[in-house]
Structure formats: structure tokens, C-alpha cells
């Protein structure tokens, strides 16, 4: 299992290191990096998720229970932060930071590990989890970040829709 995880993470780590070195030595202009990032975020990554889900054999059982478990974990962590807010008297202005750091996960590392350990089924399962959990995480994040500002529901909904 450790070898599978290593084979999933090593190429990703090498890719990140390569990007850092290319950026540090200005091999690629900063504006180009911004364009590449935008291309990846708005086109390539969604295309990967869509293609992995479109070809997946999603039946009853593992997919549904895993998706439910992932959404339950995100929701329970969100509730735990709010419980800690009252127990430890956390300043409302800091609440959003705690929520963000607890419920956000790195989708790239998750995808790399899912594929390394569970191949195509892992990619499809993690894509499904991402598709449902990211909107939920965005809702929780906007709620916690704007909780102390007493913002109108309309503005909150617009912020949730615009959350990247």
C-alpha cells in the first residue's frame, strides 16, 4: 500500500518542484503561469472530472456510501468548528479561517492517491466526491466567512455562486 501511495505522490511532487523551479528561474513568464492556471481550473480539471464520471460504472453500494460518508465528514467538521466556537469562545472574525483550514482538501493530491491506489474506480469515486463536496464546502466557507458581517441573504447567495 505504501508503494502505491508513493507511486501516486512522487510524480505529483516532481511536477510541483518542476513548476517551482520553472517559475523561480523565470523560464515561463508570470502572465503565462496565470493563463495556464486559468486553463487548468476552468477547462482541464473539470474535463478530467467529467470524463472520469461519464465512463464510470456508478451503481448502488460503494459510490453512494462513500459519497455520503464524505459529505457527512465535511458537515460534521463544520459543525465541530461551530461547537468549538461556543466552547472556547472563538472570535467570530477568526471563525472563517478555522472552517476553511479544516474542511478544505487538496483535490490534486486526493486524485493522485485515488488513482494510484484504486485505479479508474478511484478516479471516478473521488471525482464524484469532489463534484458534490466542493459546492457544500463553498457554502460552509462563505457562511463562516461572512457570519460576523451580518450580510443579507441575497449577497451571501451571490458570494456562494461566485466562490472559486
Detailed description of the structure:
This protein is mainly α. The chain has one domain (2-162). The chain is built from six helices and no strands. It has helices at residues 2-24, 30-54, 62-87, 92-103, 107-146, 153-162. It is globular.
Task: Summarize this structure as a short list of keywords or feature phrases.
single chain, 164 residues, 6 helices, 83% helix
List the helices and strands and how they pair.
Elements: H1 2-24, H2 30-54, H3 62-87, H4 92-103, H5 107-146, H6 153-162
Helix pairs in contact: 1-5, 2-5, 3-4, 3-5, 4-5
What's the oligomerization state? single chain
> Spans with pLDDT under 50 lasting ≥5 residues?
none
Mean pLDDT: 85
**Overall geometry:** globular
Alpha carbon gyration radius:
18 Å
The overall strand count is 0
Please report which band the strand proportion falls in: under 5%, 5-15%, 15-25%, 25-35%, 35-45% or over 45%. Answer: under 5%
Ends apart, CA distance between termini: 34 Å
State the helicity in percent bands.
over 70%
Q: Order of helices and strands, N to C? A: HHHHHH
What structural class do the secondary elements suggest? mainly alpha
Main pleated-sheet profile: none
Count of helices?
Answer: 6
- Total domain count: 1
